[in-house]
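Handout, section B. The chain below has 419 residues.
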Amino acid sequence: MQNVLSPTLERADLLDWYRRNRERSLQLFDMIDPDAYYSKPIPLRHPIVFYEGHLPAFSFITLARNALGRPSIDAQLEKLFQRGIDPADEKAAAAHAVAAWPSRQEVRAFGRACDEAIVLAMLEMRGAHSGDLPVQAAYTILEHEQMHHETLLYIYHQLPYHLKHRPANGAPPPDATPPQYARAKVPAGSATLGARRGETFGWDNEFEQTVVEVPAFEIDAHSVTNADYLAFVKAGGPVPSFWSEKDGRWLLQCMFEEVPLPASWPVYVTHEHAAAFAEWKGMRLPTEAEFHRAAFGTPSGGERAYPWGAEPPSYAHGNFNFHTWDPEPAGSHPAGASAWRVHDLVGNGWEWTASTFRPLPGFAPMQTYPQYSADFFDEQHYVVKGASAVTARELIRRSFRNWYRPNYPYVYAKFRCVA
């Protein structure tokens, strides 16, 4: 389903989307061993139990309670599960510790009650229009749950393998010969950031649309691979958190097993590591505007909806939407290349930019989630663009912006360099 706002709400489509989200959530929570349920694989995040309560709680609070005025189901649990955390360090994370979490049975019973209320709320939204608060709330909860699927998975990535159940498509993709190094020349031109209000659902940081003039630059045609980065490590560069060295061999921590370092896969690193590599190469990271120009610009001066054109995203265009759980060799989807023949700008890993996360001109907090972006305009987060292997298809749009702290080592973020 696309997130373009129609004049009237298609309730059946939104209900189907909600139910698909909840089915995937159930599958993800069933993927882990019960012994891991209260574990905290990443010290800077809540334990896994929080997320099973957070997803239905947020949806109920946002749509049923706040937008439609429905009474609380369980005020105490709603407060407990309302919002996650993004502390700067483990000391700050300790301030959010919870003395005792509810049982899994309690959490799932609460989730079922929230689900029932949300389905009833959607069924009762008769005649709602795209500008109405309930419609915005409906899209908010649908995309919020999909974003948290990815959050869950990079948390799961840190779990010991014996605590995870591998799905049918869980084997890591095979390695290949790394692509030949090349740069694409992108001439000076304009880049459109953001979207116009009223035309599509978007999070508040996606508005208002603005056009930026971008000088000419050259950009890596492929994202930096493990083979590329290994040369930097051998020269004294920092080691990525997903790597380990045993008996003189480099290994990569995949989702479900450890494998010899795949030379052709993009390297997942922090912003700090990416910037250090770029400096070592005598280059730099692209700005958000340069990413847009490389991804969506065309020689004719126009701009595309996606790097490859107007066709809706599919596996032909990139590695996203849970086709795999790990990266694929760089350049595996030539049909997804941009007009300048830059590959993998969407899929196979988010792309770090040099731009700190800031509001676009005309920014206004969204009614349904006013703190979503504003709390992070702190010059301590950097914009990432594109998508990873476990980013949902519905989240892939030109204006979508994601962001992380520069030293956060757990996310599926790759990069390329600009001259």
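Note. The longest helix spans residues 133-156. Compare this with the example in section A.
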